Amino acid sequence: MKPYTLVNRYIFKELIPPFVINLVFFMFIFLMSEILDITDMIVNYQVNLSVFFLMIVYSMPYFLVYIIPMSVMMSILLTFLRMSADNEIVALKAGGVSLYGLIPPVLLFAACGFLITVAMAGWGMPWGKSAYEKTAMEVVRSNFNIGMSEGRFNDDFAGLTFYVNNVDMKTRELNDVLIQDSRQSQTSSTIIAPKGDLLKGNDDYTFVIRLYDGVISQVEPGRGGAHATNFKTYDIRLDIAGSGTNMGSRRKDEKEMCFSELREYIKTAENRDKRYYSVLLELHRKFSIPFACIAMGLLALPLGVMSVSARKSAGLGMGLLCFLLYYLLLSAGTVLGESGRFHPAIGLWAPNGIMGVLGLYMLVKTAKDEPVGLQSGFAFAVGRIRGFLAGRTKP
Question: Does the keyword Cell membrane apply (predicted)?
């Protein structure tokens, strides 16, 4: 077996354990924010644990699109930092293996991450997003009367906040109802009624709160006017599906579309409005974010293969800084792409281009054993900061 083949297999195998550890770690962090929302739904609507775990599973493809590139970069960085610290890189160079000879296993590993992320972005995320929304609406629909908890402000519906002092779960009668309605931008209404009923609407995803013998106080913030109106009966329609009369008519979010649906919408769109640019942006995002596995992977290789004099913490800190810079550029590109000021391809692919060029520059410099200004500058800045903090902590 050729030496290069042994080296490639060894490096590829060494990349897997840190990748799994980083994947689990980042997944745990990302899921924490989602678990809070899911837990709140469980408490409010009293759903069982099976639904809880299902909603976590449905959330995972969306997070994995961002987590996999992060894990790929960090696994490559940590692997080569360890190999540098154990003088394995020096041993490989002494055996005739150049830095360029270490690229094939890194590219293969990054390409695997790219393909998995593309699958998650193109098919996993639309499936998970659609299933999550469907499950959430089903939970609210089947347990909506439970969601009308006594003595609690409920703001689950956009522009509506309601408070019910007493609820009869059997008859669905409401007592002492307070509703803040700000669905109209120019008018804010406060509705107070001593009694009300929770009624079923025209379909399974629509409810009506019918209030009796109450008063509506309306305020117009822009004009400064206010007036009150008494009523005998007043209906407030609550649409769980968000729009339309049933769940099937709800317009798909661009994140719920697969490749073919995105391309079909772009092809048939009559107007280049905000919706058009959002869909075009999502199509490019499904490829640009997965490609970060390759761009950031090439950058992580020279960051990991550092000179003996460089600190390990400097390489790790530099890697985290580069990843933060990538997502800042990606966020800026997303905003510019959605506004239509730049083509979405520019905003979403520019961060990959910048990180890829930076990685190739550092790779060539490191292969020639030439100092890389970015690494030495960052190490110097870290050393100065640590020295400053150490001086501040002295008595």
Answer: yes
Is the confidence at residue 170, as pLDDT, over 90? no
Contact predicate 138/146, CB 8 Å: no
**CA-based radius of gyration for the chain:** 28
Looking at residue 194, its pLDDT comes to 92
Kind and range of the H or E run holding 371? none
Q: What integer pLDDT is reported at residue 309 of this predicted model?
A: 47
Amino acid type, 160: L
Q: Please give the Cα distance from 196 to 175 (Å, whole number).
A: 6
Helix 103-119 and helix 274-304: axis angle, to 10°? Answer: 150
Distance CA 179, CA 108 (A): 58
Which residue, 129, 380, 77, 393, is CA-closest to 250? 129
Q: What are phi and psi of 183, to 5 degrees?
A: -70, -25
Q: Going by DSSP bridges, is the β-strand pair 160-168/206-220 parallel, antiparallel, or unpaired?
A: unpaired
Neighbours of 115 (CB within 10 A): 12
**What was the pLDDT predicted at 244?**
37
Pair 141, 205: CB distance under 8 Å: yes
Task: Evaluate the CA torsion angle 261, 266, 270, 276 in order and state its sign.
Answer: positive
DSSP conformational letter for 150: B
User: Mapping DSSP to helix (H, G, I), strand (E, B) and coil, where does residue 361 land?
Assistant: helix
Tens of pLDDT, residues 338-371: 776 778 888 899 999 999 999 999 888 888 877 7
Q: Return the SS3 of 168.
A: strand
Lowest mean pLDDT among 45-49, 208-212, 285-289, 296-300: 45-49
Q: Identify whether the C-beta of residue 163 lies closer than 8 Å to the C-beta of residue 149.
A: no
Q: Which two tokens stand for residue 49?
A: 């644990």
Q: Enumerate helices (H) and strands (E) in the chain, giving the number of each.
A: 11, 6
State the pLDDT confidence band at 395, using cuts at 50, 70 and 90.
very low
Q: What residue ranges in 65-171 does DSSP mark as E strands?
A: 153-154, 160-168
- pLDDT-based confidence at 35, cuts 50/70/90? confident
Note the Cα 341 to chain centre separation in Å. 24
The Cα–Cα gap between 111 and 193 comes to: 62
More confident residue, 118 or 144: 118
